[in-house]
Design goal:
Elements: E1 15-19, E2 26-27, E3 30-31, H1 35-49, E4 53-57, H2 74-84, E5 88-90, H3 97-104, E6 111-113, H4 130-144, E7 149-152, E8 175-177, H5 179-193, E9 199-203, H6 212-218, E10 224-227, H7 232-238, H8 253-266, E11 269-271, E12 276-279, E13 288-291, E14 300-304, H9 306-318, E15 321-325, H10 338-349, E16 353-357, H11 359-368, E17 376-377, H12 381-388, H13 394-397
Parallel strand pairs: 1-4, 1-7, 4-6, 5-6, 7-8, 9-10, 9-15, 10-11, 15-16, 16-17
Antiparallel strand pairs: 2-3, 12-13, 12-14
Helix pairs in contact: 1-2, 7-8, 9-10, 10-11
């Protein structure tokens, strides 16, 4: 996956079409979390300093192929303008003669944000027929008319073969990555494929079903897997423990047994919670007891307990490479956040290369204030998960190889 980057292209006098991820939360016309916009700034600034003009493409929300004011990218353009300290033009559309004229009129160093690509159903349509593919390609071809260099810096959408993330590359050349996408490829690709050992994976979250492929793929690479979150109790039940009212995917009990057997055959340490915080209801103000692996009837495990934190912390301290996807418990409730917070501190304190992926674990790391202590915090939830599953990401595959 050795892809060309913006550094490999002479940008002077060029018109760059750049796919960014400005899918940011907006309330009352204001961006309330500008993280994704800030993450795109290094590539944006570099392109402008190299003497190119810049046309930005992004989606926002799920307008389902309709133009809706609440899904307009105008607030994101205004936020970007503040960061750049210069005028950012806002186009009324993302395709068409008028937008093409506006793009052509841009001078070197000028920026224009196009309107939401998902105002057109062709952006993310599921192509079931040749006619569907032709329709999506026709839309992508119109997007490609806005420039003569394509840069993808939107890792969060790179796992989807959408018009503005992958199909556009058929109609414009060169096609290269921005710095943010490059960093994602570097950490999630090269580091995971050729890790320093001991290599451990911390996998949490609610369900086994969403992480099975990740577990199976990582099992061929890691030395230890530490399991937390709701998914742990399907595995504990598969081992014969009582789990009370804890989350459990009954239809995956046999699959969980097979996964545990596979770990044993592979020589991978597969660590499950030794103790748990068991509540009498799903509520921050619930009555809580610390129990061992057997969880009493009428109680549900909502976080890992202190013995588990100690065991996981000791394992993390040995690591040279760490991948973490998914929280250890219901960290959104303060009384069940300790396990996840403790793991945050353990990873931050380790000397390992640490890669954090997945929306909830990223949120937990940000909440802990330790994000700057991690080697890499991924910007793509679904994309990072699919990368860890060993899948090819269409938005990455479509870019030029060095």
């Amino acid at each position: 996956m050795d892809k060309k980057t913006v550094r490999d292209v002479d940008l002077k006098g060029k018109r760059v079409v750049m796919r960014v991820d400005f899918n940011v939360p907006i309330k009352e016309g204001e961006v309330v979390d500008d993280t994704r916009i800030r993450k795109a700034l290094p590539t944006i600034t570099y392109i402008l300093e190299k003497g190119a003009s810049l046309v930005l493409l992004s989606h926002l929300g799920r307008p389902k192929g309709e133009s809706k004011v609440e899904f307009s990218l105008r607030p994101a353009a205004e936020c970007l303008e503040k960061f750049l300290g210069k005028k950012v033009k806002m186009a009324s559309d993302c395709i068409g003669k008028e937008v093409e004229r506006e793009a052509l009129a841009l001078n070197p160093g000028e920026v224009m944000v196009c309107e939401n690509t998902r105002f057109y159903r062709q952006e993310d349509m599921k192509c079931k027929t040749d006619e569907d593919k032709q329709e999506q390609e026709a839309f992508a071809k119109k997007l490609a008319k806005l420039g003569n260099v394509y840069v993808n810096d939107a890792f969060g959408t790179a796992h989807r073969a959408h018009a503005s993330t992958a199909i556009i590359c058929k109609f414009i050349s060169p096609c290269v990555s921005g710095f943010l996408l490059e960093k994602e490829i570097e950490y999630l690709g090269k580091t995971v494929e050729n890790p320093m050992h001991p290599f451990i994976a911390i996998i949490g979250g609610a369900k086994v079903s969403g992480k099975l492929e990740v577990l199976r793929h990582l099992m061929t690479k890691v030395d230890s897997i530490l399991i937390g979150g709701g998914m742990a109790y399907t595995f504990l039940k598969a081992q014969g423990y009582e789990i009370g009212e804890s989350l459990c995917e009954e239809d995956l009990i046999e699959t969980a047994k097979e996964t545990l057997e596979l770990a044993g055959e592979s020589g991978v340490k597969f660590l499950l919670p030794l103790d748990n915080l068991a509540a009498d209801k799903f509520d921050n103000d619930a009555n809580i007891k610390t129990v061992e692996k057997d969880i009493p009837e009428g109680r549900m495990a909502l976080d890992i307990g202190p013995k588990t934190v100690a065991a996981y912390t000791a394992e993390i301290a040995k690591a040279k490479t760490i991948v973490w996807n998914g929280p250890m418990g219901c960290f959104e409730m303060s009384n069940f956040a300790n396990g996840t917070t403790a793991i945050c501190h353990a990873v931050a304190d380790s000397d390992a290369i640490s890669i954090i992926g997945g929306g909830d674990s990223v949120a937990a790391v940000n909440q802990s204030g330790l994000a700057d202590k991690m080697s890499h915090v991924s910007t793509g939830g679904g994309a990072s998960l699919e990368y860890l599953e060993g899948k090819v990401l269409p938005g990455v595959a479509a870019l030029d190889v060095k």
